[in-house]
Design brief:
- The structure is a single chain.
- The protein has one helix spanning 15-29, and strands at residues 2-7, 40-44, 50-57.
- The protein has a three-stranded antiparallel beta sheet, with helices on one face.
- Helices cover 25% and strands 32% of the residues.
- The chain is of the alpha+beta class and 59 residues long.
- The longest helix is centred in the middle third of the chain and has 15 residues, at 15-29.
- It has one domain (2-57).
């Protein structure tokens, strides 16, 4: 399996801060998922804008 994370940094005022927040929040939220191929979720920044997606894929 493969964990795939894609986050667009376009338009972020402080990309490092927002990306850090995304990694902490969504990383801490993963225990709610089985982490099997097909699992995934949209990723939102602190302004609740859709900025990406994480997913579990088959190798």
């Amino acid at each position: 399996m493969k964990f795939v994370l894609e986050v667009s940094l376009d338009g972020m005022d402080d990309a490092a801060k927002e990306l850090g927040r995304v990694l902490r929040y969504w990383g801490g939220n993963l225990h709610h998922y089985e982490l099997k191929p097909g699992d995934g979720s949209a990723i939102y920044d602190s302004a609740y804008r859709d900025v990406g997606r994480w997913s579990i894929t088959a190798s």
